[in-house]
């Protein structure tokens, strides 16, 4: 199939199907299936050793699967006619010849990939590195190296981006920049698949998540749906000097009430207005009433509990 004949429905879509990788003693990835849609940022999450990097490496034809397939726009990476123009990837912190300038590093890649060298300047501009274009790589900070890696991934103006831990080593400003940059790429209709350990960051960045543990799929879907599917649901934090009286009143309404180590009541099964009304009716004084939605970190820990990542 040529680019012109590509099926519009599969364009930019990543499909992982029954993917398995058996190393000598470890089944790093075990019958894994998921899809990644264009126009969205998808967070690829899992504890250490869950199989994320192995999966991404199989997607990019750097590791041969034991079984199953991984395709991008309906084709295996190895079968893409012009892979750099289709897929941009960063699998580890960017490395370059120490004495080479940022712009020359990118020009070397352009030359090898048959891309015009003007793309090097455009990609540097895209990641905000133009002021450092002529500085040598050895003088780059970790954050600048990460940006250079992204610039390299963007050289072919790819419609699919695959990034393994791109926020590693970035300071808060760098992380905020990365978030805006990746969201914008998705907004342009590109497919953005990002693995990360930074769950709070993923909650801000990702539209969808794919969560794996011990090489297997645990959950996939839109972030909101995954958060909403948790049995625990929202809980309300309540501080009161009359905890016992309020607990009795809430239990009468079938609420579940537990107490944390600071004596704060954690209430589920009823919402904040219901708790406020019950407190008023019981003559109980309230010092705090806060609804806490489950966050990705809590959900992740709950979903992956007992599925030790390190194998
Ligand atoms: N080349 C290899 N040979 C043998 N075992 C390997 C190889 N590569 C990975 N593994 C094992 O496969 C499992 C999955 O590793 P992988 O690096 O894919 O996990 P990960 O989710 O990316 O982890 P982390 O978050 O720690 O980077 C681990 O148990 C790892 O030790």
UniProtKB/TrEMBL annotation:
One Pfam family matching this protein: ABC_tran
Keyword Methyltransferase applies: no
Domain ABC transporter: from-to ranges: 14-239
GO molecular function: ATP binding; ATP hydrolysis activity
Keyword hit for Nucleotide-binding: yes
Entry keyword set: ATP-binding, Nucleotide-binding, Transport
Domain of life: Bacteria
Membership in a protein family: Belongs to the ABC transporter superfamily.
Protein name per UniProt: ABC transporter
């Amino acid at each position: 199939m040529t680019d012109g004949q590509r099926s519009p429905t599969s364009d930019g879509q990543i499909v992982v199907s029954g993917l398995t990788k058996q190393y000598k003693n470890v089944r790093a990835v075990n019958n894994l299936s998921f899809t990644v849609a264009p126009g969205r940022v998808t967070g690829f999450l899992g504890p250490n050793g869950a199989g994320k990097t192995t999966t991404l490496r199989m997607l990019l034809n750097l590791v041969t699967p034991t079984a199953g397939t991984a395709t991008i726009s309906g084709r295996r990476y190895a079968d893409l006619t012009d892979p750099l123009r289709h897929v941009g990837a960063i699998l580890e912190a960017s490395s370059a010849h120490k004495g080479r300038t940022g712009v020359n590093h990118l020009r070397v890649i352009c030359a090898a990939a048959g891309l015009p060298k003007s793309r090097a300047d455009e990609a540097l501009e895209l990641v905000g590195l133009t002021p450092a274009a002529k500085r040598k790589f050895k003088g780059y900070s970790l954050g600048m190296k990460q940006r250079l890696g992204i610039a390299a991934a963007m050289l072919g103006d790819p419609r699919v981006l695959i990034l393994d831990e791109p926020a590693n080593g970035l300071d808060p400003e760098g992380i905020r920049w990365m978030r805006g940059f990746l969201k914008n790429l998705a907004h342009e209709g590109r497919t953005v698949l990002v693995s990360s350990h930074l769950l709070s960051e993923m909650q801000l960045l990702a539209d969808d998540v794919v969560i794996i543990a011990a090489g297997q799929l645990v959950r996939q879907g839109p972030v909101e749906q995954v958060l909403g599917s948790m049995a625990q649901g929202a809980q309300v934090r309540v501080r009161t000097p009359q905890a016992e009286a309020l607990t009795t009143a809430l239990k009468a309404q079938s609420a579940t009430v537990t107490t944390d180590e600071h004596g704060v009541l954690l209430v589920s099964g009823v919402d904040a207005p219901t708790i406020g009304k019950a407190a008023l009716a019981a003559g109980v004084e309230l010092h705090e009433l806060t609804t806490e939605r489950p966050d990705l970190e809590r959900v992740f820990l709950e979903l992956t509990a007992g599925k030790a990542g390190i194998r």
